[in-house]
Amino acid sequence: MQEAIQQALQGGDLDKALALAREWAEASPDDAAARHALAVALAQSGDPDAALAALDEALRLAPENAWLHMDRAVLLVQGGRLEAAREALDQSLGLDPNLVPAYLAQARLALLRGDLDAAGQALRTAARIAPEGDPHLATVQAMLALRRGDAEQALRHASAAAERLPDDPQLLSVLALAYLARGHLAFAEQALRRVMELAPPAAAKLRPLLAQLVDAQRRPGEAVDVLAPLLEGEAAPALYRAAGLYALRAGRAEEALAHLRRALDGLPDDLAVLDGLMRLWQARGEREQARATLESVLAAHPDAGAAWSARLVLETPGTAEGAQVLERWLAAMPEHVPALHAALFDRERAGDPAGVEAFARRVLALRPEDFVAGRMLAETLLERDAEAALAQARALLAAQTEEAARAGVRSWLGQLLDRAGRPDQALAEWLALHAEHGGRLPPPPPPAEVAGPWPDAAAPAPETQVLLVWGAPGSGVERVVDTLVAGGGPVLRDRFGPRPPDDPLQQPATAAALAAGRLPPDELVARWRRALPARGIGNGVAVDWLPWWDNALLLALRPHLPEGRLLLALRDPRDMLLGWIAGGAPFALEAPGAAAAWLAARLEQVAQLHEQDLYPHVLLRLDEVLADPPQLAARLGQALGFPLPPAPRDPRGLPAGRWRAYTGLLADAFARLQPVAVRLGYPEH
Predict the structure, then answer these.
(1) Alpha-carbon distance 10 to 8, whole Å?
(2) What is the DSSP letter of 659?
């Protein structure tokens, strides 16, 4: 009978297994094995309370059976009764100190409690007893490794166990998590789908993770379909949120709107939900629908700050309607920092320094380290009292607790000193900052010294599909990229993020490899193309912001990337050096003279490329437009041949020609840059 029950369970016929177990238990009321089989069938049929009762009957008949105590502990864990489960395991091991499954259950229980040391101790004991290569031991070892953040070890244990237990749902779940932690998304998806096949009752719980895995592989439409069965009735707001965001990325606007609207009912302050809805309403021209929806949300949730922010966006800045919404927001949330920030920017747009000062002081009373309020207060004070402005800036610096924040405030403090007419103090602040933090950055890459001859250029493509963007430190190229992003194009900024692409254009050593013939030119372009899909580009049309440039790249781009175009951001080289000193760059600045020499060598290459027209390019001069987003957008749009909206204003940076205030302090460095400045069309002095 026991064998027949086991076969029915393995075949997934739970009804048959339960019927056979009941029949056996009724026929043999004093047989502990029959009660145990009934408990197993009840547990797998989804009735843990009845299973626990049957197991208690089995223990009444066989109180010294260590396996029964261990199975009871497992059921107690599933019911959330962790302390009772621990006691049951202690009883089990008291009866049989060599019962390996009990030690594994102890380890699992310790993992549930978050006691990783106790889990490790139980596993070490089990390892001394268990046969070599025990897959159940390896499974729990993988679970512990995952909790410790060691994904590589977890994958090693789980993979070894999977060879012995290829269809164990729990092991496959651990294997999926290990693959996910290692970034092997396709393998994680495959393992998770297998779990759902083997354990259909677990499918509903696993669908959100599967959808996440599918979306991470850039299949958002399929991710929506994975979640669809969970949305047929009433679902949690988080599920509607996920489905709506997937549908939005898949271009399924109607579904996205329906799901996000339902998510908003339960998540009225969720930024992603509100951002998605705002994009949909804007695309559909449903401004009044947006207003009505947000007003309804705010009536029910007057403390939903993100909803207030979205509501304010629907009104034109500076209008009476916008002022009324802002006034209501401040009345509902008078100490909400984002509301006070909105008021700060409103007063700045209105040219109301007294209002700026008043709201900035309100923010700083709540959050002394707030950079936005501290900066705006200091810059407002600067108009009438430089000493008070600098005192406020130093108070803001003292309020910072994180080193990165302190570095940002110090960089701005240097700019404030510059505006206060104290260039010597500003330069000292900036150079001290470089000295303290420059060691964390790589040195500027040396040029490859390739002057030609150049390979023949391929026949030009009918239209530009690839825009490569570069600007030397201090050029303001960041503002150019911000403007391109505001235009909604496929702009790739990942080279400056935590997960840059693994292609030759990421590594400065590529220039020397090309020049020396160690890297075939066609391979460079081929590897760059192969990396695009993983970066979110499926059609080859991309704007790629490069961290470095060297004319050696022309050895590959001229013959093998005819559809490309190079956008070079440029300012007066002396302003660029000062901007590098004042604002930082991806490279370390060892000393102004060394930085000037490196910058001159790079700009000589730019001049050569431009003068000889070595590759389709745009030389974008930013001197007079860098601090003016509309003018910058107009100049960039004119150069590229299509209109662009302005990016948000960025208050950082020094005005064009400011280098002249530092001629006495940086005379040698500026002298090194003078020839290339003249060559590029800038005045000698």
Answers:
(1) 5
(2) G
Measured CA distances, 601 to 443, 452, 551, 674, 681 (Å) = 15, 16, 11, 12, 16
Q: Are 96 and 128 in contact (CB under 8 A)?
A: no
Distance in angstroms (rounded) separating the CA atoms of residues 14 and 201: 12
Per-residue pLDDT tens digits for 647-666: 888 777 899 999 999 999 99
- Spatial CA neighbour of 577 closest among 434, 375, 425, 422: 434
- In this structure, which amino acid lies at residue 579? G
Question: How many angstroms separate the Cα of 71 from the Cα of each of 52, 85, 94, 139, 442?
Answer: 9, 9, 15, 18, 58
* Angle of CA points 420, 351, 480, to nearest 5°: 70
Report the phi/psi class of residue 540: left, alpha or beta, with left for phi > 0 and alpha for psi in -120 to 50.
left
Alpha-helical regions (H) of 182-236: 185-198, 203-216, 220-227
pLDDT in tens, 262-294: 999 999 999 999 999 999 999 999 999 999 999
Letter for the amino acid at 613? D
What tokens does 327 get?
A: 């006034």
- Beta strand 542-545 with 491-492 is parallel
Q: 250 with 282: CB under 8 angstroms? A: no
Angle at 663 between CA 658 and CA 668, to 5 degrees: 130
Q: Is the pLDDT of residue 66 over 90?
A: no
Q: Are 102 and 89 in contact (CB under 8 A)?
A: yes
Average pLDDT, the chain: 88
Band (56; pLDDT cuts 50, 70, 90) = confident
Rounded Cα gap, residues 224 and 255, in angstroms: 9
Say if residue 69's pLDDT is above 60.
no
Give the 3-state secondary structure of residue 236.
coil
**Token couple for 281:** 């309403």
Count of beta carbons in the 10 Å neighbourhood of residue 573: 29
Angle at 36 between CA 30 and CA 56, to 5 degrees: 75
3-class SS of residue 619: strand
Q: What is the pTM of this model?
A: 0.75
Domains of the chain: 2-215 (1.25.40.10), 466-679 (3.40.50)
* CB contact set of 341 (below 8 Å; sequence gap of 6+): 363, 372, 373
Residue 103 falls in which region: left (phi positive, over 0), alpha (psi -120 to 50) or beta: alpha
In the chain the first and final C-alpha atoms are separated, in Å, by 100
